[in-house]
Automatic annotation (TrEMBL):
<dbReference type="InterPro" id="IPR036865">
    <property type="entry name" value="CRAL-TRIO_dom_sf"/>
</dbReference>
<dbReference type="GO" id="GO:0008526">
    <property type="term" value="F:phosphatidylinositol transfer activity"/>
</dbReference>
<feature type="domain" description="CRAL-TRIO">
    <location>
        <begin position="135"/>
        <end position="295"/>
    </location>
</feature>
<dbReference type="GO" id="GO:0009410">
    <property type="term" value="P:response to xenobiotic stimulus"/>
</dbReference>
<keyword id="KW-0492">Microsome</keyword>
<dbReference type="Pfam" id="PF00650">
    <property type="entry name" value="CRAL_TRIO"/>
</dbReference>
<dbReference type="GO" id="GO:0071944">
    <property type="term" value="C:cell periphery"/>
</dbReference>
<dbReference type="InterPro" id="IPR052578">
    <property type="entry name" value="PI_Transfer_CRAL-TRIO"/>
</dbReference>
<dbReference type="InterPro" id="IPR036273">
    <property type="entry name" value="CRAL/TRIO_N_dom_sf"/>
</dbReference>
<protein>
    <recommendedName>
        <fullName>SEC14 homolog 3</fullName>
    </recommendedName>
</protein>
<keyword id="KW-0256">Endoplasmic reticulum</keyword>
<dbReference type="InterPro" id="IPR011074">
    <property type="entry name" value="CRAL/TRIO_N_dom"/>
</dbReference>
<dbReference type="InterPro" id="IPR001251">
    <property type="entry name" value="CRAL-TRIO_dom"/>
</dbReference>
<dbReference type="GO" id="GO:0032934">
    <property type="term" value="F:sterol binding"/>
</dbReference>
<dbReference type="Pfam" id="PF03765">
    <property type="entry name" value="CRAL_TRIO_N"/>
</dbReference>
Amino acid sequence: MFSFGKKKEAKKEDKADSKNFIKVSTPFEHPVEGIVPPKEKKLTDEQDTKYQEVLHYFQRPDLEVSVKEKESSKKEPLIDDEKAWLTRECILRYLRATKWVVKDAIERIEGTIAWRREFGIQYQDPEKNSCNAKLVEPESLTGKQVVLGFDNDARPCLYLKPGRQNTKTSHRQVQHLVFCLEKVIDFMPSGQDSLALLIDFKQHPEISANVETSKIPPLSVGREVLHILQTHYPERLGKALLTNIPFLGRAFLKLIYPFIDPLTKEKLVFDAEFKKFVHAEQLDKDFEGLVDFEYNHELYWPALLEITQKRRAAYFERFHKFGAVVGLSEIDLRGSSEKLTVPIGKHPYNASESTENLVEEVSDATEKLNL
């Protein structure tokens, strides 16, 4: 059986001197100096061959993908924005999520492309998407979801604070979560493709007293959110830390727990001390960090949009600079080098090796799949 931890006992702990607090009103743009992403693990020869098969499939010029997740009657070719999303790391994430079954990885990627089209987040330019800042801004007024800081592996942190809920249950709440996921991804430094979720269930009576909201979301909403996270953002979650879990929160977690896949369960840490995972200089003082952060929508929201729009524009500009093709590495797309460091079909550890023999092997393997 599983456990969500016991309620913490109150205890006295040394608090940082208030004179050392860092006043912050906007997102941190970079990790603390010296914190870098861990080195990537080398693929086995078998894994690399499977990666090449999936890459070769999505490089097909005649490829068309459905415009709706659960309907295949209408299909359209990939646009540049979708090719920019279909990176080397993206393919590897889906392969890991499907236990390196090529056919399943391809189906999952196509399903996500269709879902992104239907959900309205298929474009690199945020203003073109139907799930946009204007739509979800009412959900952001109290700071219930905030991108702030990076963890000790240089993952950008997304804080979820259910106690600051300011709206009734609706589909727009799901759209807001997806919007924030896309924003936190924009903060990822070169070499890091996962994020950290820091979930604080602390109650905020000053907010809940002024609006009629649900204390916990309906099970149907919880399952929809899980479906989106596990199906369309596979391997994006590096760590999920949960703290201040109330009785109703524990009850909801027990209801939703059976629907959480084993890979995600391994990344959940209950009743976590955030200071063990995030450097004090980028951790909120509420969790024994040095950051004095009070959510001010008029300051935070415009800064978040400006920072992420610049980052996404730079990403897309580098995508075109390096050929505007499927399979470019996020290391290059989020990096600063003037030259391509990870060629198509290669990895950081073998970027300088010849690809001629590999291309022939992949072509033969793909033909055998009859895809």
